[in-house]
């Protein structure tokens, strides 16, 4: 079995009755081609002008792939949403490696280029560019927030994809960070001598140190939040030591200040990836309830 055949087998966990297009190249970078997968609704034979959810996987901007859409809770969410009329797009983006030339900014730009590609080819793909949605977890949650809150023309990428507009309707972030400038948000227990964990994934060592603040702010979704922003649902665990719950509360505080539509759901005893922070004590809301709240949020905009 080839690698691509294995990928396709894995992705078949999304039960779309064959209504899918896999491994579509949306851009070519120095690191190679970047791909996306499209899963079409199962409740209709009219595959045109479809509301479309773009999924960006987690993995610390350094791991993971578009195959994550077919795993565990994500498969449950997406299998339900394709039955309700949504088109699901799962994308790959370049990944950070220590000593390499790919950084968080590249991950975000690739993801924005994927959405621009969808807009450019919306007619032949059957997508409604006025009904795009974003969803991601962890690092993908940050990227989803960036897709949702930043204007389509910001963070320029492939010039062949620039100039193709789209409208983001709403988005969901599972345990995704909202601000890198305020590094204390990552210090879950307020310990002294806290080290900035994700800085190396933002900053190119070759960059001028004076660019640090600019890059931190550029990669922080909270800086794009306004009263005119599309609705955002942030679901965070209160026992998460990787992306602490502080991020949800901080985004909520900013939202109230600017009168932006942000809703937060705090999952008790939940660590990263909805693991039990205290083993043996169930998280609340449960996995099933988190899945249903996510589905209901998107469905409310149909």
TrEMBL record:
Q: Which InterPro entries does the entry mention? A: AB_hydrolase_fold (IPR029058), BD-FAE-like_dom (IPR049492), GDXG_lipolytic_enzyme (IPR050300)
Keyword entries, A-Z: Hydrolase
Q: What one GO molecular function would you report for this record?
A: triacylglycerol lipase activity
One Pfam entry name: BD-FAE
The organism's place on the tree of life at top rank: Bacteria
Gene3D superfamilies per the UniProt record, alphabetical: alpha/beta hydrolase
Say yes or no: keyword Hydrolase present: yes
| BD-FAE-like domain location | 36-254
The entry sums up its family as follows: Belongs to the 'GDXG' lipolytic enzyme family.
Protein name according to UniProt: Lipase
Species this chain originates from: Flagellimonas eckloniae
Q: What is the lineage of its organism?
A: Bacteria, Pseudomonadati, Bacteroidota, Flavobacteriia, Flavobacteriales
């Amino acid at each position: 079995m080839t690698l691509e055949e294995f990928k396709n087998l894995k992705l078949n966990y999304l039960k779309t009755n064959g209504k899918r297009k896999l491994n579509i190249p949306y851009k070519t970078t120095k690191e190679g081609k970047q791909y996306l997968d499209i899963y079409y609704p199962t409740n209709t034979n009219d595959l045109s002008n479809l509301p479309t959810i773009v999924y960006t996987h987690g993995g610390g901007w350094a791991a993971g792939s578009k195959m994550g859409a077919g795993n565990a809770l994500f498969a449950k969410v997406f299998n339900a949403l394709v039955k309700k009329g949504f088109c699901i797009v799962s994308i790959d983006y370049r990944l950070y490696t220590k000593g390499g030339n790919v950084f968080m900014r590249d991950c975000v730009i690739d993801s924005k280029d994927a959405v621009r590609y969808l807009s450019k080819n919306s007619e032949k793909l059957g997508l409604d560019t006025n009904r795009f949605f974003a969803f991601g977890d962890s690092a993908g949650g940050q990227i989803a927030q960036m897709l949702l809150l930043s204007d389509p023309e910001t963070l320029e990428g492939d010039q062949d994809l620039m100039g193709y507009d789209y409208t983001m309707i709403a988005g969901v972030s599972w345990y995704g960070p909202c601000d890198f400038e305020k590094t204390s948000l990552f210090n879950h227990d307020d310990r002294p001598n806290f080290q900035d964990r994700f800085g190396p994934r933002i900053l190119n060592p070759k960059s001028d140190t004076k660019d640090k603040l600019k890059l931190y702010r550029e990669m922080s979704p909270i800086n794009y939040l306004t009263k005119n922003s599309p609705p955002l649902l942030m679901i965070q665990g209160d026992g998460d030591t990787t992306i602490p719950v502080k991020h949800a509360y901080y985004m909520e505080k900013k939202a109230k200040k600017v009168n932006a539509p942000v809703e937060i759901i705090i999952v008790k005893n939940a660590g990263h990836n909805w693991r039990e922070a205290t083993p043996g004590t169930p998280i609340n809301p449960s996995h099933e309830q988190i899945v249903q709240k996510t589905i209901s949020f998107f469905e409310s905009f149909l």
